[in-house]
Amino acid sequence: MLGNKAELIEEVRARFAHVGTDPFTGERIFFENAGGALTLKSVVETSATYAAIPDNQGRDNPTSAHLVAVIAKAKADAACFLNARGGQVIVGESGTELLFRLARAACNAWRGKGGKVISSTMEHPASRSAAALGAEAAGLEHVVVLHDDASGTVGPEAYATAMTPDVRVATIVHASPVTGMGMDVAAIAAAIRAVSPECTIIVDGIQHAAHGHVDVAAAGVDGYVVSPYKMFSRHGFGLAWLSDRLAACPHDTLQGGGSWEMGTRDTGAYAAFSDVIDYFTWLGEALGETGDQRARIEAAARAIHAHEWDLTEAMLRGTGNQKGLTELPGVTVLGGADNPAREGLVSLVVEGQSAEELVSALRERGIRTHARKADHYSGNVLTPLGYDGCLRVSMCHYNTEGEVAAFLAAMAEITGA
User: Fold this and answer.
1) Same domain, 258 and 350
2) Where is the Aminotransferase class V domain positioned along the sequence (predicted)?
3) What does the alpha-carbon distance between residue 38 and residue 232 come to, in Å, rounded to a whole number?
4) What span, in angstroms and rounded, lies between the C-alpha atoms of 54 and 215?
5) Cβ distance 186 to 220 under 8 Å?
6) Using an 8 Å Cβ cutoff, are 224 and 85 in contact?
7) Range of the domain at 79
8) Dihedral sign (CA 259, 265, 270, 271)
9) Looking at the structure, do residues 266 and 315 belong to the same domain, yes or no?
10) Under DSSP, is residue 68 helix (H, G, I), strand (E, B) or coil?
11) Cβ within 8 Å of residue 13, ≥6 positions away
12) Is it the case that residue 6 has pLDDT exceeding 90?
């Protein structure tokens, strides 16, 4: 059920490619959305259309003018989705690449002046490494605050404890791709600014963006980065919003230029991102919202978050005659079963079975999941807990309670319940 409209979930699923079948193996349940969500059919069509157009932007012909208009619309759509006021939207190679560019520029603004950069152990290396390398290159000290192992989160109190007035740059992860927990970005940003009002704050929104509300104006941050392939678009580009203050920092650009985007942009990437925002807008309308584009996006975000919460609760507590994960022998859920920060993702370990074994056993039963290892991607979360790996089961709003029931039946078999 989505927004108390039982029939709407089928309309939603119909808009996505390969929602119930794999192009190579046939029927399967897709619970690997944190690794890359399903793609909108409209994105597939749009990508093909723009890949075939030979014209570039900035030429004296109608096709070129159309390309310019498409990019302008996509930037406006992205700004609306993010609730960005001022600043600019850019695309780059990937979300990770953009986090590095933003962090490097923010740190370079303080080269030779001293100060600190603050991050947390909750972060994906996309932002944590970007902050560390940016700080090193600019001669700044990198301070890393510890997250809470039990809840799989980091809060404003942890940042506040480590804050000093000379913190120049801060990075925050909006949601963890390992624990699946969301962070209170606005509260963390407020704690940072209470001590260092002019700190440049950059948010890694890559895991969060597909699952809920984004409001950079309310959060009071300077940069927000997403990976569109994790929010129903395609691979091959990342998207970021920069505040005017961050955009003014010294950055890689052509001599005599100043643009953050170097080279000719892929119009198809921009158009495909507009498809995503058009989808959110449609979903808000389908839920009964009659306000402007932002109001419809917010309605969609609320319904998505609520639906995914119901799915994770069913997975944890059980549904129908299926026992939940909390009732299965040997199962431990990362972050605990009673965690209000969870966003459509459950990571777990099963006593006596490796994460890789679990992924294979589920694959044999037609369910796609993923194993996270205690490596440079996830070791910051798993190693303190004493785990070599975990099974990540990640959902999106197009998943159903019936799919959760099938997963629980498979897990009951695997654990011998």
Assistant:
1) no
2) 29-407
3) 6
4) 36
5) yes
6) no
7) 45-279
8) positive
9) no
10) helix
11) 19, 20, 398, 400
12) no
Residues contacting residue 54 through CB under 8 Å, at least 6 positions apart = none
pLDDT bucket at 399, cuts 50 / 70 / 90: very high
Q: How far apart are the first and last CA of the chain?
A: 28
Neighbours of 66 (CB within 10 A): 14
pLDDT tens sequence across 188-234: 999 999 999 999 999 999 999 999 799 999 999 999 999 999 999 99
Question: Is residue 407 within a helix (H) or strand (E), and if so which, with residue range?
Answer: helix 401-415
Residue of 238, 173, 170 whose CA lies nearest to 205: 173
State the DSSP H helix or E strand holding residue 379, giving kind and residue range, or none if neither. helix 379-385
DSSP-assigned states of every residue in 311-324: HHHHHHHEETTEEP
Question: Please, are residues 293 and 274 in contact by the beta-carbon 8 Å criterion?
Answer: no
- CA 129 to mean position of chain CA atoms: 17
Say how many domains are in the chain.
2
User: Rounded distance, CA 172 to CA 255, Å?
Assistant: 32
| Position 285 in a domain | no
Q: How confident is the model at residue 18 (pLDDT cuts 50, 70, 90)?
A: very high
**185 touches 159 (CB < 8 A):** no
**8-state DSSP, 342:** B
Cα angle 385-212-17, degrees, rounded to a multiple of 5: 100
pLDDT by residue (tens digit) across 329-355? 999 999 999 999 999 999 999 999 999
Let me know whether 35 and 49 are in one domain. no
pLDDT for position 3: 65
| pLDDT of 20 above 70 | yes
Per-residue pLDDT tens digits for 272-312: 999 999 999 999 999 999 999 999 999 999 999 999 999 99
The answer for residues whose C-beta is within 8 angstroms of residue 288's C-beta and 6 or more apart is 3, 299
Q: What are the tens digits of pLDDT across the range 106-129?
A: 999 999 999 999 999 999 999 999
Residue ranges in 206-292 assigned as alpha helix (H) = 216-219, 244-247, 267-286
Residue 177: strand, helix, or coil: coil
Residue 116 located in a structural domain = yes
